[in-house]
Amino acid sequence: MVGTTEPLHRSLCSNGSLYNCNVLEEKLDELRCLVGKTDGDPLRIVSVGAGAWGSVFAALLQDTYGQFREKVQIRIWRRPGKAVDRATAENLFEVINSREDVLRRLIRRCAYLKYVEARLGDRTLLADEILKDGFCLNMIDTPLCPLKVVTNLQEAVWDADIVVNGLPSTETREVFEEIRNYWKERITVPIIISLSKGIEAALHPVPHIVTPTQMINRATGVPIENILYLGGPNIASEIYNKEYANARICGAEKWRKPLAKFLRQPHFIVWDNSDLVTHEVMGGLKNVYAIGAGMVAALTNESATSKSVYFAHCTSEMIFITHLLAEEPEKLAGPLLADTYVTLLKGRNAWYGQMLAKGELSRDMGDSITGKGMIQGVSAVGAFYELLSQSSLSVLHPHGSKPVAPVELCPLLNTLYKILITREKSTQAILQALRDETLNDPRDRIEIAQSHAFYRPSLLGKP
């Protein structure tokens, strides 16, 4: 309308719907009110870590709420200076030219020439530089929206209202210990949403699991009531491409319910749950067995029968382990199996297992892989093995009635430890474990777990 002073975001939303714009703004206003924001003071959200899931999470928020610039500020932090290698630059150039919308966007932003120069070898791109244009180094084939990138950690987090932990579990403690130094004079307590799937084993004073949310709590002093975990059966690139997905945000009721509402989108349904640590541990457990699934797939030329045999045994081990960790493990069966299923189909841990078995990757290359990021299942194998091998957690062996460490009833976990951690066996050992004539029926392991009082609350730090 001629002469209108109505803000642009009220006139046009990303999907062209004024109604949806109003709904989004109402959700944003509700969260701003809960956080205690006043007019003129934007809600500050920062994603710490720019792996695939952390980058997609920030991009989803930017796509959804970035239009309300006066009310919300969305940024992402990553370390500066990481160079993009020549092969990745060439691949990136091909991706750009295959997508007319991306190509036009870069030309309009006067950002296309640097990708041409990098393709020719005349320039070295940096990971933080391309992230500003919407390219995550671990997910080059899926262009995201442009992002506000910050490379100074203090600048990124010192006044953030919501911090999203997109770091691998192996880096979480170190980075949040640094963040603590920038929060010493804070008056308000931030909200932290952790996306990290991984665990550490601690053996003293009693064997127990340490999760990323616990690491954050101990590193920063932020109350556990303000720290949540978001996870679910999803693949980052597919979520950004609006494939239907769901997730759970777990933690204290004060924040999980409003955050579930704030994050929920038509293609990304977010439920809420109070069981923070158990869901977090399950997110790490499925990565362990995903690596083995990739090995089996590669070694058997994608044999559906062999993969199903592996699936039967790995799920029985996971069920056995959940009975040690959870008082009501049946409540975890659906989320755990769903997350395991999608990870076996397309996750980076299964891919890593395949590449090892094919000889295209070496264990000497470590667990941080160019173009994929951190393979968190490797450290999780070590953590679960170390924890479940403690004699103080012994259970009765079904044949012989003698006490054994729980890991002795998990032959696949045992084998993966010897392949990935001690490296005393080759990837072929995973098939040998499956073909062992003394291997029990997977059902036997499930029956043992269901018929014995295995629950060890101390494993999750409970009295």
TrEMBL record:
Residue span(s) of domain Glycerol-3-phosphate dehydrogenase NAD-dependent N-terminal: 147-247
Protein EC: 1.1.1.8
Signal peptide residues on this chain, from the entry's feature table: none
Major enzyme class: oxidoreductase
Positions of the Glycerol-3-phosphate dehydrogenase NAD-dependent C-terminal domain: 275-429
The family this protein is said to belong to: Belongs to the NAD-dependent glycerol-3-phosphate dehydrogenase family.
PANTHER family linked: GLYCEROL-3-PHOSPHATE DEHYDROGENASE, GLYCEROL-3-PHOSPHATE DEHYDROGENASE [NAD(+)] GPDHC1, CYTOSOLIC
Top-rank lineage group of the source organism: Eukaryota
This protein's name: Glycerol-3-phosphate dehydrogenase [NAD(+)]
TM segment ranges: none
Catalytic activity reported: sn-glycerol 3-phosphate + NAD(+) = dihydroxyacetone phosphate + NADH + H(+)
Organism for this UniProt entry: Hibiscus sabdariffa (roselle)
UniProt keywords, alphabetically: NAD, Oxidoreductase
Lineage of source species: Eukaryota, Viridiplantae, Streptophyta, Embryophyta, Tracheophyta
